[in-house]
Each structure stands twice: as C-alpha cells, then as structure tokens.
C-alpha cells in the first residue's frame, strides 16, 4: 500500500490560503463544526487533513474540501448534519473512499464527513449478528471474524469501505449462498437530514430498509451502524487459471455453463473472469474460482469447477486454501492511479457472436488508448446466477429489481487505470463510448438487461432509473418522506443521486 503522506503535500499550501480567506457559508460551517466538535475538524496543511485525504483513486485525492469533520459517535453525526443543513453547506460523506470518481466521496471546497472513527465491530452473544460502524474497511471485519469461525457477506478487497459497498449492493465470495451484502443487513441505524436517528429493518421503517438496500446511501441519510447477519465459515478454496486469449471462446462458454447450471447446483461456488490485454498484444483470460468450503481431499477440485481443469492450454493453474482475510489481501487492488469503470448486464446465455463483438469494441478502444500511453484496461465478467437472485428476494426484496424469472445474468465491467491527468477526457470519453457500443451490441442480439450496478457504474450511468420505473418512483417517494425539505438532495454532493 502506498503511503498517504506522499500524495498531497505539493498542493496543500494553496489550499490553506484558500480556506483562510473564505467567508462563505461553508467556511462558517467549518467554524461551527469546530465549535461543536472540538478537535474533530481539520484544515489543510495538518496531519489530520492529510490522513483524511487518503483515497483509493488519484481523482478523489485531488478533490480538496475546505475542512474534514471526523465525528466519533452517532450523536456527533447528528450534530454535524444539523449544522451543515442550517448553514446550507455542501458536503459529502466518506467511508472507505473507494469510489473512483472525483467527488464520489470527496468535495471541492465543501465539507467532507470522514467516518473513520466510527469503526466499532461487535459480535452478538449468539454469534448471529455482527454490528459494524460505517468507517470500517473489510479487512478489519474479517480479521475479527476469521478466528471466531464466522463471516458476513462482505467485500473481496481488504481496503474497500463497508458503507459504500453495502449500500450499493455488494458482491461477495459468499453471494451464491446468501445474496449480495445488502440482502444480509438485519437493520441500519441512520441519521436523517433532520438529525433524527432512526432504525430501518424489516419491521421498523421497512420502506427505508428497502431503499437502503441498493438505492445509494446519499439519498436517505448517513448510516451509522450496519447490523449484518453472520454465519459459520471456515477456510475457503481458491483456484486461479490463466489461458491464452486464443481460448476466449472456450472459456466464456465454460463460464456461461457455470453461471447457468453449475452455480445454482452448488451455491458455495463463486467465480470471476477477466480478459486482459497487454501493449504487446498478448491477450489473456484469467479465471478465479472460489469455493466457500474446502474439497476433500484438499488437493481435489470441487466438481462444479472441473470443466476448467481439463483444458490443456492453461498457462498457469494454482490452488490454495486459507481464511477470508488471506484472500481479501491477495485480491486487493493497490491505491493510486486514475480510474474509471462502467458496466453492462447481459442475459447469461449470450452467443459467441456477442462476445466477439464486445471484445472487438474493447480492443478497438485499447488500440486508441495504448497509442496514448494508457495501457491498463480489462474486461471483468461476474456471474449473477439464479440462486443469487433468489436470495435477493428475502426480507421483502431489495431496491435493485432483479427477479428469478428474468433468468441468470452476467455483469460485464470495464476497469481502466492511467496516470497522466491529461488523458482524463480521452479515457472517460472512450469508456462512455465503449459502454454505449456494448449496449448497442447487446440490444441488437436481444441480450441486454437494462440494470446498471451502482458499485461498478460510470459516473454518468443512470443507476437508479435502471431499476425500473416502479422502483425508481418508490425510491424518490421514500427519499421525500425521510427528507421532506430535500436537504440531502441539495447539499450532499456525489454519485448516484436520485
Ligand atoms: C479495489 C476495489 C475493489 C472493489 N471490490 C468490490 C467487490 O468485490 N464487490 C463489489 O460489489 N464492489 C466492489 N467494489 C466497488 C465498491 O463497493 C464501491 O466503490 C463502494 O462505493 C466503495 O465503498 P467505500 O465506502 O469505500 O466508498 P466511499 O467512496 O467512501 O463511499 C461511496 C458512496 O457512499 C456514500 N457513503 C459513504 N458512507 C456512507 C454512510 N455511512 N451512509 C450513507 N452513505 C455513505 C458516499 O458519500 C459515496 O457516495 C470495489 C471497488 C474497488 C475500488
């Protein structure tokens, strides 16, 4: 992991003078926050400010607030929200800081509420519920739960924050057995725009509970505690295979079979497929297979994954077992770099022609980017099998709108990273064109599902509208009910707003 201290120092002098000279409501808001929460408001050029400025992507780190406020209790969060709404001060909220876009959980000149100190982790006496403060990252959670033989449906990267991950959906190693993370929240403690603290669960404020499962946190309030369903979990089995790009057709067909038939028969199975390219033109298909239980004997392969093992062309094939924390560390994407992504959902039974056209769009874009020195692009394919969609129906269903009758799906996303800010427009425009081209292809062959997954969306994708008119209207009504003056809509900046 890169040091946070090295990143921002060059630009902080300018920011300090900007902050001091301001007499705006925002400046007054920082002063009012400092008076209410002494020691928990930081300004540019201080260690606390630099620590709070530590985000995963460069675009977020470069977006500087006038001050950070770091509340330590739910009632302090309530005071913060009341002060900010009284001052009409634009603000945002940061949990793990892993949304990639400038302004995702950062704000230029406003106030950033950094939840870092709200990091409690409590396991209930019966071991059925784990309560998480919203400032936790997933590694903090798994390092407590692994030794207890417990797990929750959580992140696959150690540094991702619990809040954004859960509120957007949350695809986990354990989704086959339990659904996405949002489907496994027993209840949310949340501070509303009024400063009132309420609990949302299947039996209390059930409409808000529904909305918080996929509707995007910034539309409803600041969640100050997630009560998650826990379950028994020992070591996992993981297998990584690399194939030459010439095998793409075979690999995608095996992945489709796994999604449509294999996973529903064995919900402990989970898989990721990545198509990568290199400047030298050496394309690869990388298959990562996960099983929540270890096969017996340990050096065997779970039956559901056997078809991948018989291919003679694998360039690498490694298996291991370990606890959840081991794989959160292994699959962590390092901090730094500029990032964009976006996603398209397809019916899982798409034809080889569709894959060929999608990869052709991607390679056409790669050629343009590589000429400009942007080399790191990939296509990430993830399964949404029917067993996952069935789990999404529990507790009254979530806001995402998937139904088992819609059949199995795959989520295709396009993570791209680069370093030179002069390439921002080139990459962002090309990402949008790639998404549009892939959607056009999918529509042409009748395999486009309109859903856009919030956690992997490009900043201009119409996430909540993609949940369908009925769910979108319901989300809007719930937001209005809990924030009748639309204070959050006016003041909380970021993605993805209703
Ligand atoms: C390296 C990497 C790996 C990832 N792996 C996965 C994965 O395995 N599965 C998956 O589904 N997604 C994954 N994601 C996507 C990730 O879930 C989203 O980017 C998510 O938003 C990150 O959450 P965060 O808390 O770190 O983000 P932040 O940027 O801190 O917050 C995201 C959004 O949530 C809001 N917010 C933050 N805290 C609260 C709160 N307490 N109450 C209300 N709103 C709040 C913020 O204002 C912002 O709008 C990954 C992302 C990265 C960069």
TrEMBL record:
<dbReference type="InterPro" id="IPR006094">
    <property type="entry name" value="Oxid_FAD_bind_N"/>
</dbReference>
<feature type="domain" description="FAD-binding PCMH-type">
    <location>
        <begin position="61"/>
        <end position="233"/>
    </location>
</feature>
<comment type="similarity">
    <text>Belongs to the oxygen-dependent FAD-linked oxidoreductase family.</text>
</comment>
<dbReference type="InterPro" id="IPR036318">
    <property type="entry name" value="FAD-bd_PCMH-like_sf"/>
</dbReference>
<dbReference type="InterPro" id="IPR016169">
    <property type="entry name" value="FAD-bd_PCMH_sub2"/>
</dbReference>
<protein>
    <submittedName>
        <fullName>FAD-binding domain-containing protein</fullName>
    </submittedName>
</protein>
<dbReference type="Pfam" id="PF08031">
    <property type="entry name" value="BBE"/>
</dbReference>
<dbReference type="Pfam" id="PF01565">
    <property type="entry name" value="FAD_binding_4"/>
</dbReference>
<keyword id="KW-0732">Signal</keyword>
<dbReference type="GO" id="GO:0016491">
    <property type="term" value="F:oxidoreductase activity"/>
</dbReference>
<dbReference type="InterPro" id="IPR050416">
    <property type="entry name" value="FAD-linked_Oxidoreductase"/>
</dbReference>
<keyword id="KW-0560">Oxidoreductase</keyword>
<keyword id="KW-0274">FAD</keyword>
<dbReference type="InterPro" id="IPR012951">
    <property type="entry name" value="BBE"/>
</dbReference>
<dbReference type="GO" id="GO:0071949">
    <property type="term" value="F:FAD binding"/>
</dbReference>
<keyword id="KW-0285">Flavoprotein</keyword>
<dbReference type="InterPro" id="IPR016167">
    <property type="entry name" value="FAD-bd_PCMH_sub1"/>
</dbReference>
<feature type="signal peptide">
    <location>
        <begin position="1"/>
        <end position="18"/>
    </location>
</feature>
<dbReference type="InterPro" id="IPR016166">
    <property type="entry name" value="FAD-bd_PCMH"/>
</dbReference>
């Amino acid at each position: 992991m890169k040091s946070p201290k090295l990143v921002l120092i060059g630009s902080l002098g300018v920011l300090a003078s900007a902050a001091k000279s301001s007499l705006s409501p925002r400046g007054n808001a920082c002063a009012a926050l400092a008076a209410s929460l002494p020691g928990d408001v930081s300004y540019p050029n201080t260690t606390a400010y630099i620590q709070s400025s530590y985000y995963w992507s460069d675009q977020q780190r470069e977006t500087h607030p006038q001050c950070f406020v770091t509340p330590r209790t739910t009632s302090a969060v309530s005071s913060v929200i009341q002060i900010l709404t009284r001052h009409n001060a634009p603000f945002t909220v940061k949990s793990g800081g892993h949304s990639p876009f400038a302004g995702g959980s950062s704000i230029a000149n406003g106030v950033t509420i950094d939840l870092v100190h709200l990091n409690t982790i409590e396991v209930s006496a019966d071991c059925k519920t784990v309560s998480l403060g919203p400032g936790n990252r997933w590694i903090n959670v798994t390092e407590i739960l692994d030794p207890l033989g417990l797990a929750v449906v959580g992140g696959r990267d150690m540094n991702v924050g619990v809040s954004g991950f859960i509120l957007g959906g949350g695809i986990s190693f354990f989704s086959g057995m339990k659904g996405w993370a949002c489907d496994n929240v027993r209840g949310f403690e949340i501070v509303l725009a009024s400063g009132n603290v309420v609990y949302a669960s299947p039996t209390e404020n059930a409409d808000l509970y529904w909305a918080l499962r996929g509707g995007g946190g910034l539309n409803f309030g600041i969640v100050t505690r997630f009560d998650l369903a826990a379950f028994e979990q020992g070591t996992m089995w993981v297998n990584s295979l690399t194939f030459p790009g010439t095998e793409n057709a075979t690999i995608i067909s095996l992945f489709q079979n796994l999604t449509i038939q294999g996973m529903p028969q064995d919900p402990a199975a989970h898989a990721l497929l990545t198509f990568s390219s290199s400047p030298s033109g050496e394309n690869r298909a990388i298959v990562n297979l996960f099983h929540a239980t270890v096969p017996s004997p340990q050096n065997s392969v779970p039956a559901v994954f056997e078809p991948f093992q018989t291919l003679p062309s694998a360039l690498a094939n490694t298996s291991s077992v370990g606890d959840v924390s081991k794989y959160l560390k292994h699959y962590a994407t390092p901090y730094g770099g500029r990032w964009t992504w976006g996603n398209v959902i397809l019916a899982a039974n798409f034809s080889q022609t569709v894959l060929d056209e999608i990869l052709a769009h991607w390679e056409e874009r790669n050629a343009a980017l590589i000429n400009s020195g942007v080399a790191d692009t990939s296509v990430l394919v993830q399964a949404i099998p029917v067993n996952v969609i069935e789990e999404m129906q529990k507790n009254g269903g979530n806001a995402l709108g998937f139904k088992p009758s819609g059949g199995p799906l795959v989520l295709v996303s396009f993570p791209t990273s680069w370093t030179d800010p002069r390439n921002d427009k080139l990459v962002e425009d090309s990402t949008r064109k790639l998404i549009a081209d892939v959607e056009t292809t999918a529509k042409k062959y009748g395999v486009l599902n309109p859903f856009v997954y919030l956690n992997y969306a490009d900043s201009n994708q119409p996430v909540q509208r993609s949940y369908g008119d009925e769910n979108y209207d319901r989300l809007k009504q719930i937001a209005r009910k809990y924030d009748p003056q639309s204070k959050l809509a006016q003041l909380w900046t970021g993605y993805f707003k209703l």
